[in-house]
Design goal:
six-stranded mixed β-sheet
């Protein structure tokens, strides 16, 4: 349910906007991308380490690209903290890249409008640790750089 009581994705009576978004991402599939319009304001802003876009069409393109680029992508929401018109979702993103399973750990900061729709979606995750270090050639360089710069 949105903050105004409207249904935001079939999560049942009393579900918060953050819960609706969490359920949406945990069940995300190419055929569910259209459901983003029920959860996000038309002019919602989205930012992650690789993208910064405005509008639901652009946000949908990011996730469509994800489905085109990696195999078996899925999100598992591990934490949900809500305060007023904002929330933080902790998550694990599981996928297969070039036959290798990968897990990226991250957090999403969400802000909602008065109707309970997302107006800001900001993902925080360490691209170097969570992705680059897991790639064969680049990973070796990134791990060596991390060791060299570490205080230990």
């Amino acid at each position: 349910m949105g903050l105004d009581g409207t249904d935001l994705g079939g999560t049942g009576p009393g579900a918060s906007a953050a819960e609706a978004v969490a359920r949406f991402y945990e069940t995300l599939a190419p055929h569910t991308l259209a459901g983003l319009d029920a959860l996000y304001a038309a002019d919602a802003r989205f930012k992650d380490p690789f993208n910064e876009v405005v509008g639901t069409a652009a946000i949908r393109r990011i996730f469509a690209h994800m489905f085109d680029t990696v195999d078996a992508p899925r999100f598992v929401v591990t934490e949900r903290i809500e305060q007023g018109a904002q929330a933080m979702l902790g998550w694990d993103f599981h996928f297969v890249l070039r036959g290798r399973p990968v897990v990226v750990h991250g957090v999403t900061h969400l802000r909602f409008d008065a109707g309970g729709r997302v107006v800001l979606h900001r993902d925080y995750w360490d691209a170097a640790e969570e992705l680059y270090e897991k790639l064969p050639l680049l990973g070796t360089l990134m791990r060596a750089l991390r060791r060299r710069l570490s205080a230990d």
